[in-house]
Beta-xylanase
Amino acid sequence: DPSLRRLADRAGVRIGTAVDMNALAEDRRYRGTTAREFDSVTAENVMKWESVEPQRGVYDWKPADDLVRYARAHGQVVRGHTLVWHSQLPGWLTSGVADGSIGSAELRGILRNHITTEVKRYKGKIQQWDVVNEVFEEDGSLRNSIWLQELGPSYIADAFRWAHAADPKAKLFLNDYNVEGVNAKSTAYYELAKRLRAEGVPVQGFGIQGHLAIQYGFPEQVAENLARFGALGMRTAFTEVDVRMILPVDATKSATQASYFRKLLDACLGARSCTSFTVWGYTDRYSWVPGVFGGQGAATPMDEEYGRKPAYGALRAGL
Ligand code: XIL
């Protein structure tokens, strides 16, 4: 009964999962299954800014260190997630910007320090970093975040340069959702990546989150999208795949879900650029979906009791 990681190894791709550190601490089955099935792990939350620096200058690296240690013990690589994002920022930072006590010049120094400190801490231990996360809107315009408002669009190139200086060997990624296929948003990333690389900015990868929902259909032109980033000389990766549905589950929905997992995996395996395929949790026991998308769920390859769903079989069959 081969594990996903064993099959992935033969197929020449990494198979990963987001890891919930509370579950890892409490649940033996979760620890065992995470080690058995996956050869890449991503911190679901504990490397985000609000987790690592909850108060200004006060760091909490413990859960992130624990994940890095777990990965090493189980022969897994780590994807770092994420350095620059508009969400899950510490309160001291967002309120300081809002009340004007942190001005733009200071904020730029704070961002530089954050990136440098975190990337250096895990230097040599993180294979790929999601340097910037979710910087475009659906129409391809830059997201109106505090980063854009306070620092202007150059914050993106700066973030990659600072991350590269802190760990020159880590592969540095852009990352977003709704960019599986060719559309306005993925095209904005393509144009950005092309321009940054022409300017010598160290951006090496395009991360496609892959949060799908069966009621919205499967995205168009996924292979073409991966191919165009590959043609820029970049790596690609599926970084957060899950396939949610409107509950309750039935056999038809489960079959559709399985086919979506399989089609994303096939796209990755069919693209030379695509080096890893990561699911955003593998058991419904700990999935983020029900808490965020009302009435939806069952988005992962295993049910709440670690039972293998058709989606698990589809991944296994595809590898
Ligand atoms: C989610 C986590 O899964 C949740 O536990 C948390 O409450 C919110 O963030 N895109 C990303 C991830 O890049 O970091 C998000 O993770 C899901 C969407």
Notes: The chain has a mean pLDDT of 98. Residues 251-269 form the longest helix (19 residues). Residues 237 and 248 are 30 Å apart (CA to CA).
